[in-house]
Each structure stands twice: as C-alpha cells, then as structure tokens.
Design brief:
Number of strands: 13
Order of helices and strands: EHHHHHHHHHEEEEEEEHEHEEHEHEH
Strand order of the largest sheet: 1-6-3-2-7-4-5
Radius of gyration: 25 Å
Structural class: alpha/beta
Shape: elongated
Number of helices: 14
Oligomer: single chain
Largest sheet: 7 strands, antiparallel
Distance between the termini: 51 Å
C-alpha cells in the first residue's frame, strides 16, 4: 500500500510459513457505512445553521446572512476534517482510507471557498453602493482589532491548503509537513471558534456556545488521541524487528514480533502505521500494507525504498524497537461471497495481495483464484516462487508480467490489458467474481474499467488508491466524486435557505 501522506510504500514478500496450528486472531470489521457517514456529516454541519436560525434575532440582509452561513459551514467542516483522515476505525473502518482521504481533500477545497468568501460577502452591499467605502470596510474587516482572531483562522486555513499543494514541489520533509498540518488545523479551529463566539451574529445564544465548544473540543481531542495517546501506546505495547532482508532490488521484507507475545488481530489485506526507534512517536509513523496472514504469529511488511523514511529502511537492524498502530483499511476479502477471486498486483502493490494469498493458503480456500503480478523488471519481482508453490494448496492460476523482460523470460510481456484479463477470467462467471487490485494508480483504474467492461459487478471491483493528486480516474472514482458533489449541493442548499429565510 502506498503511504497516503508521503511517498513511502509497503508490500509483501515470501517468508517462512508458520506452523499450521498458529492461532487465528481476526479483527472484527468496524466503522460506519458511507451513507451513514455522509448523513452524520450533514447533520453536524446543518446543526450549526439550525441553531443559529433559531436564535431570536432578525435576519440581516441576504448577503450578510450568506456570509454568516458560510462562516458556520466552513468552521464546522474544518473541525470535522480532524476525523476524516482515516485514523479512526470506528468511523471510517468500513469505507477504507482511500475514500476517507479523498473526501478529506474534497472537503478541504469546499471549506476553503467558504472561508475565503465568508468575510467578502459582508461587504457586497457596500461595494454595490460605493466601491470606495467597500474597500474601506474590507480593510477594517481584516485589520480591525475585533477581527484579529478571525484573520488568524482565515490565514491558517489558506496555509493548510497551500502547503498541501506545494509539499511535493518544494520537497518538504514528510514529518515537517505533517506537524505543520496538525498545528495549522488546531490554529484554524481554535481561533475560528474564538472569532465566532466573540463577533458572531448569533454568538450570544447558549446553544451556539455549546455547539462551537463541543466541536472544538472534539477536534482538538483527536490530536491528543493520534499524537499523544497512540504515541504512548507505542511505548506501552512495543514490537521488535526480528529480521530485515532484501528480497528484490530496493524491496525489504521486515518481520516484527510483539514483545509481550499477544496475538495481533487483523484481516488479510489491511495495513498498519509503523514508527521505528529512535523516533518511536506517532508524528513519525508511516502506513504500510500487511503482507502476512492473521494466522501467523508475527507481522510481516515489505517496504520499498521510495522516500525520506524508506530510503534507509534497509539499515534498520534486528532488535530495533517499533510501534505499530492498527489494523486499518477495508481492503479485505473474507466477507465476500463471490464464487471466484481475481487478484491484481502492480509493483510494490504485491503487499496486500501476498497477505491475501497467504491467508487463503492457510485457511484452505477452495474457490478458484486467479492472480496477475506485474513488475517493471525481473529484479523487482517479488514472491514468484512462493506464489507458484501455493498451487499445491489452492485452485490457483498465475500470470507474471514484466514491462522490460530479459531474453530468457518465460512469463508475460508488456502491460495488463483486456486480452490478458479475458484469459484470466476464462471459465469464471464475471458477475460472481471478486477483483482486488493494488499498485500504481493508472494500473488500478485501467484494470477496474476493463473488468467492468468484461462483466464484473462494480460492487465487486475493489482497489485502494493513495495518490491524492488528481491522477487517473476510473468510473468508480468518477461515481464517488458525484456522491461528494451531491453532498456539496446539500451544503449549498442549506446555506441558501439560511441566507434567504428572512
């Protein structure tokens, strides 16, 4: 799995199989459905508008009420950003971190527009009547003493988005960006709430005080949970690196053992956040897919040399103490009732695919399983011998594909295209086949669209994308964006109703 916050990636590798009587420790799938999360989101934001509308104060002009509504919506959305980062399983455990972060980024754009327009709309009537006075009033709104807390929050929101956009271009270290992201978010919420309570049109009402204090407390407490409580848990519940072996060029298999020996409950295909000594704090943790089966004793990851942290991953010595937070993610197959399974791995995306295969082999899976593993060159190919050996335990067919094969290569050449996918589906009922893909974004989106063209049910086409730039989009991604837009329309409708209610 690729790191959703940086350019690190995790993967899997062949490793010794533990004894067949190892304990199984499978984590229950927790979290809310996408619809429940969307409804809850709307309820929280709309509550601020409803409480303000219930205050017995005559409405201002429509422009002023629209400005107030945008301020309420933008600040409430900013507070909720702390919970859409994918770090809270009880909320987003069922939808996966890819959808969580995709929504997080979409919401950031919407709240940015709301926050920027909030002070400007107040001055529209003045500008229409007298532009010179309009500029004077705008200056007072930004430079006046009463607006100071609001200006700090306003600038903090803008800086969050600017840094997120420019991070890769200016090569800002991951930990620096992450710390600034959290600090600026806390500033935006803290000073935003102070501004709303000090100068807000409806701030005198007790209900608005309760609403803003509750949102601020929840948002800031999330930072305590992620950066303090979980950081302390890394110390209370340490793991130790057992081995670190280079299994392919730039791909390292790391095996971890829980110091107290307790089973670690997770589902094949999930991921964990990993922090290693000497920086065993949550600010420095990174997400990697689990490459082992829950039926094994130890936890295995493969980490690719690809970023600030991972470029030196091969130097981690055995006995290094680590912290592990998890499990996270919804890239799992054990609840699906499909008749057959198609697994697609591109490059380092072999990680969760190996975890799934290892679990299928240990669980005695009897359904037909088709696997396509793609890599650039042969020295980047991971797990071929182990996957081939699984034929003895599984109803398995495998295709290995290289972009740049050597002269003596006996596998597939080129890309994973419709012709290869058609061969992989031969003899299967596409409508009853589950597809799971992990790898480069273009690889996942193109194969997803092709598989749906070949008859797979969209609900059975799964992948997790972690390149939060625009990138390639599949029809599944486009449909998700339309759902986000529908939520945005609902927020806009609430704003208009509030603005025009007088």
């Amino acid at each position: 799995m690729a790191d959703p916050l940086s350019d690190q990636q995790g993967s899997a590798q062949d490793a010794p199989v533990n004894s067949p009587d190892d304990r199984v420790s499978t984590a229950p799938m927790v979290g809310l459905s996408g619809r429940a999360l969307a409804l809850g989101y709307l309820v929280v934001v709309a509550a601020g508008l409803a409480l303000a509308a219930s205050v017995p104060i005559p409405p201002n002009h429509a422009w002023g009420e629209a400005a107030t509504a945008l301020g309420i919506v933008g600040l409430a959305m900013m507070a909720l950003q702390f919970f859409s980062s994918g770090r809270f399983r009880s909320l987003s455990g069922r939808i996966g971190i890819d959808r969580s972060i995709a929504f997080h980024r979409w919401a950031a754009r919407i709240l940015l527009i709301a926050v920027i327009l909030h002070p400007l709309l107040y001055t529209v009537p003045t500008f229409l009547a007298d532009p010179a006075r309009g500029f004077d009033r705008l200056g007072m709104m930004f430079l006046g003493e009463r607006a100071r807390t609001g200006l700090i929050a306003w600038l903090a929101v803008i800086m969050i988005v600017v840094l997120a956009v420019l991070r890769d271009r200016v090569r800002m270290p991951y930990e620096t960006w992450r710390g600034l992201h959290a600090a600026l978010g806390a500033l935006a919420v803290g000073f935003g709430v102070a501004h709303a309570l000090a100068v807000g049109t409806y701030a005198s009402a007790l209900s608005m005080h309760v609403y803003w204090y509750a949102l601020a407390a929840l948002a800031l407490s999330s930072l305590v949970v992620v950066h303090l409580w979980r950081g302390l848990s890394f110390r209370r519940d340490p793991w130790r690196l057992v081995s670190n072996i280079e299994k392919a060029r730039g791909l390292w298999e790391l095996t971890f053992h829980r110091v107290d020996g307790r089973p670690f409950s997770y589902r094949a295909g999930q991921f964990v956040w990993l922090a290693t000594a000497p920086r065993r704090q949550s600010l420095f943790d990174h997400p990697f897919s689990i490459a082992s089966s829950p039926r094994e004793r130890d936890l295995r990851l493969i980490i690719k040399e690809a970023g600030d942290y991972t470029n030196r991953i091969g130097e981690l010595a055995p006995d290094t103490l680590t912290g592990i937070d998890g499990p996270h993610g919804a890239f799992t197959a054990d609840d699906n009732e499909a008749d057959a399974i198609l697994l697609l791995a591109g490059g380092v995306g072999i990680a969760p695919i190996m975890g799934l295969l290892r679990d299928f082999a240990r669980a005695g899976e009897t359904r037909p399983i088709r696997v396509i593993v793609a890599a650039g060159t042969q020295d980047r190919l991971v797990g071929r011998e182990e996957i081939e050996a699984m034929r003895a335990h599984l109803a398995l067919k495998v295709w290995f594909v290289l972009d740049h094969p050597p002269a003596d290569w006996d596998g597939e050449n080129g890309i994973v295209d419709a012709a290869l996918l058609t061969r992989a589906l031969d003899g299967l009922n596409p409508e009853r086949t589950l597809s799971m893909a992990c790898g480069p974004t273009a690889f996942m989106t193109s194969t997803a669209d092709t598989l749906m063209d070949l008859g797979l049910d969209p609900d059975n086409v799964h992948y997790e994308r972690f390149d939060y730039d625009e990138g390639a989009l599949s029809r599944l991604d486009i449909a998700q964006r339309w759902r986000f837009r529908a939520l945005g329309v609902a927020l806009l409708a609430g704003t208009l109703v509030f603005a025009l209610r007088g």
